[in-house]
Amino acid sequence: MSETASFVDPVFLARFGLTRINCIDYFLHPLNPFRTSAKTSNEVLNMQGINIGTLMAWGTGSRPGPLSLQEGEDEYRLALERLTGEQYELVGLPNEWLGKVEMTPEELKQMSSLFTVRHVHRTSPRQVKVLGIYYILEGVIYKSPSVRGLMKAHVTRTLEGLAEACDALSVCARYDPSTGYSWKFDPDDEDDDDETYHYAREKKRKRRRILDNRRPGERTAEEEEGIRASEAIDRILSRLSKSDVVVKGKPIK
Question: Roughly how many angstroms between the first and final C-alpha of the chain, as a whole number?
Fold first, then answer.
């Protein structure tokens, strides 16, 4: 599944809203493409009538209700630890909400913007293997990107920026056999030939951006050959520019 995939159920959100109390139930939606096909411990607890909401209202045998949100989540976590198999865990409760038994609608609304859900496989109360991490932002479920995906995105953006910088600088470079390389950054100092060169270069670059669907940095075999030939010519011209025959007019011995 693509890392950009997402899921949202407007009917569920309009009818029940979304809080930490029903967040796991929302993630276990039958149409959610991210949920596992295996039977999870969360569904086993649901069949027993155990979820965060009921635990907050009624408590447990050793901890009668009503319970705070944090206490309800702790009891739900303990219930999951007594089971094995695939499970979904709700991660993290902001420190400012710890210990509150009753919460105003405004406070519940503030807590309903972002949730993090961890998909784990539990083999014992203390041994779990993380299978995936998901987050729910404004009611939309996304899969958390992998480290490889993040690095790939950062490198791609960096390469695109470097390519644009090189394109901007390349049109300012000039070479003269007698003086070597020079830079012209002020458009007012350029002659007609330079303006023609700028126009042709910019037109070619824009056309490639429109017509070329290749990834940044990808070149054809012809382009690679052209770059190697251009570099070889630059090396030859650079050596000639430093030669006494060209610079000082000394005779060849």
Answer: 71
